[in-house]
Model the fold of this input.
Amino acid sequence: CIWHHRFGVHQPNRFIRSKAHVVWFSKGSPKVFPDTCLVPSDRAAIYDDPRVYDSERGGMRMDLDVWGFDRYWSRITGNNKERRALHPNQLPEAYLRRVISLCTEPGDLVVDPFCGSGTTATVALSLGRNVITGDVCEQYLNSAAERITKGVAR
Done:
């Protein structure tokens, strides 16, 4: 899946990079819980087609593989309350909340080998998941431990 964001480093002679990819791995067959991430279908939201309400999901559908177009997605910038010092590559809590909710159940184990600012661990714990994380940088681990202790920002 891809997180689309409306900001990026100015590029005078090429397109501005405005996306980040997420890849998840699963032991065995991957779990997917689509009901946690349903969105209104275009037939319901745009075209007001009454036939869609007779469907199994009543006008809702599984989301697209590009996320972040609606106004509720945060962006990580210097003035955002999710922003952690020291960390150049952060994803918004909303993005990770969606990935973790879609692919795990409460009590499942989420492993993040690149802890960084601790967003994945913080969000996973807030959703009742177990977490294993780590990083090679002691500063990052100390910062992440502080964030995990405080909990989610949003």
